[in-house]
Write a structure and sequence with these properties.
Helix 1 runs antiparallel to helix 2. It contains 2 helices and 2 strands; from the N terminus they run ββαα. A two-stranded antiparallel sheet has the order 1-2. It is mainly alpha-helical.
């Protein structure tokens, strides 16, 4: 049986909404690389959304629909970023590896 700290939290959930984990020491495997690419995409989207949020808030918009959509998107992005942070906090990062590369 693999110890919990050897499992990698994947950036997606199962059909029932429960977390998915990968039990492998092979960072170069297909699922590991796929997870790296998805995490990089999620972090990039969060960065773009944060920039957009700053623009929306600078415009002093009073459009409640736009603010509601922005809040929903920021919530989703924050959930993704926290999942990536949790995953990366559980696994060692090889020297020179920046994650998602």
């Amino acid at each position: 049986m693999t110890a919990q700290d050897e499992l990698r939290l994947l950036p997606w959930t199962g059909p029932d909404g429960k977390p998915c984990y990968l039990s492998t020491g092979d960072r170069g495997g297909y699922v590991s690389r796929l997870a790296d690419h998805i995490e990089a995409y999620q972090l990039g989207m969060a960065s773009q959304l944060l920039e957009h949020a700053g623009q929306v808030l600078d415009d002093d918009t009073e459009d409640l629909k736009e603010l509601h959509l922005l809040a929903a998107q920021l919530t989703s992005a924050l959930r993704d970023v926290l999942r990536v942070a949790t995953s990366r906090g559980r696994r060692p990062v090889a020297p020179g590896h920046r994650g998602g590369d």
